[in-house]
Every structure is written in C-alpha cells, then in structure tokens.
Amino acid sequence: MTINFDGIFNTFYDSKYDKGEMNAQYAKYGHLLYQKLIAPLGNLREEVIIIPDGELGFIPFDALLQKAPSDPNRFSTHEYFGKNYQVSNNYSATLWLEMRAKTAWKEGFLGIAPTFPINPVMENALSNIRGKEDNLWRLDFNESEVEGIYKLFGGRKLLSTQANIEEFKKWASNYGILH
C-alpha cells in the first residue's frame, strides 16, 4: 500500500482552500487513513500503543476517523479513533519494553535550577564573544520557574549551589520528570 503523504499534508497547508474545504479534506483523509492503517487490524484492545516508522510518525492516530462524518464541519459529531481507544505512541518497541519493565519512580518531578554569579566584566566579555545571534545567556528566572513547577507537582528541587552535577547524578534516576 502506498499513500502519498506529501499530497495529504500539502492539502492542509495550501492557502487556496477555505475552512469548509479543509474540513472536508480532513474528513476524507482522516477516514481513509483509518481504513488503510487501523481497520485492517480487526478487533483491538482498549489500549492501543502505536510505534510508527518514518512519515507515519507525523500522523495523529487518535484524530483518525472511524466513520466518514456526514457533516465535516461538526467536529463534535466525528467518530475519532481516540474517543473509543486509549491511544499512545512510542519511539520503538525496545524503548516501550524498557519503560514497561522499569519499576515506578520513587518521585515524579526533579527540578534543577543552577545560578551563576553575576560578573559584569565576564558578562560583557561573553556578549562580545557570542554576538547578538547567540542565545546562550544567563538564566534569570530558572529558580522561580522550578519553584512554580515544584508547587504544582512536588518532588525535589535542586537550586543554586545544590544544582550541580554530583547532586544531579545522585537523584536523577529516581525521578520520571526532569526539568
């Protein structure tokens, strides 16, 4: 089976189509892709894990349409694949197996926010070396950002001088979310 993805994607981004035409194209291709990629698999379990390859990685499988909609403009009436199935993606079967086998992390969130002393002479020298197009500057708000996330999720935060490579190595493997 060969599907011309370039044609599909270009249809959505071509400015000559109005919203109604784009909705009709989505309905057409959303259902066509479902028929070609999902329907042949037959009865599926409630949880579907998709490990796409190549161009298939660009397809939002949960947005595919199980039936062609009677009105492409009424999105609330569409039968999305993701409405009836818990759809998740992974990058490889090996990675999925490793993640599945891994025991639960002790904590959820580890936030790391190092601070660097402000040295005007060094800042001026670095700005001359970097030039205006380089985006490597001091992180002014990283501590407040980590604090805000920590308030939402809990976990652990490494701030200022605690945010060093030794502490990172000590704690990182215990957490599922690193920021």
Based on the model shown, name its key terms.
179 residues, alpha/beta, 3-stranded parallel β-sheet, two-stranded parallel sheet, 5 strands, 13% strand, elongated
Walk me through the structure.
By secondary structure, the chain is α/β, with parallel strands linked by helices. 40% of the residues lie in helices and 13% in strands. The chain contains seven helices and five strands; from the N terminus they run H-H-E-H-E-H-E-H-H-E-H-E. Strand 1, helix 3 and strand 2 form a beta-alpha-beta unit.
Describe this structure in a few short sentences:
The chain has 179 residues and is α/β, with parallel strands linked by helices. 40% of the residues lie in helices and 13% in strands.
Q: Span between N and C termini? A: 42 Å
> Any idea what the radius of gyration is?
24 Å
How many helical elements? 7
Low-confidence parts: none
Q: Based on DSSP secondary structure assignment, what is the total number of beta strands?
A: 5
* Beta-strand residue fraction: 5-15%
- Main sheet summary: 3 strands, parallel
Report the order of strands and helices: HHEHEHEHHEHE
Shape: elongated
State the helical fraction: 40-55%
Order of adjacent strands in the largest pleated sheet:
4-3-5
Mean pLDDT: 82
What structural class results from the helix and strand content? alpha/beta
